[in-house]
Design brief:
225 residues, mainly beta, 6-stranded antiparallel sheet, 4-stranded antiparallel sheet, 2 helices, 10% helix
Amino acid sequence: MKLGKRVNFNVIKNELAQKGKAGARLAPSTLILAQNINTARTKYKFDVLENEGTPAAEEIRLNINDDFICTEIGIYLRGQETTVGARVMNAYYPFAHFGQVAGAEEALPLWDGTLDVSVNNTTYIQGWDVRKHWVSPINLANLTAANTVEMTGQSSLAMEHDGMVALEPMITLSGAKKNTIDLNLPGSISGYTVTMVGGTPVAIVVNGITVIMRGMLAQNTASFQ
């Protein structure tokens, strides 16, 4: 993984040099883009720039002077713990490991959705299936007569893959251009509340969708021409 990131860095550095931006400062960075779940919608548009609308508290947007080269992407259900307000990102459908969660099945269409990304009306990602980001964080050991399961802990796959997927070829979002990120779902979804037990019960209200992009921030390279 470290080798891959070094290769990405060198490729990005060389491409910027070819564009006359050899002195560009590169820094590992993350964009966090969020939308609240709306039961009346099947299409979610994620704003990218700091000056678009009103960013949510958890969002990290792109400054209009910078470019962002995305090397990996993740799509999550967003939850919020009700006691201290901590945010939780789920790359899975919380069924058996929390018991039967009333209403949670209403979020399933998320993983049958697709993502489209374009910059200045040029499409760089089309029909990217959200199913790539599904992660099951448990091993299911025994199916009982009561239709429940026994968990044996986190699977090795889930430990290696947290819902982030490498993006190749890499794409560049620009603070100087129109960036469009659309999530298209086959049906509407709704939020739900999960209560985790074992010790003090903890309630998590799942009420949003988050797109996380990781990569390199190229500072002061955005071109408005």
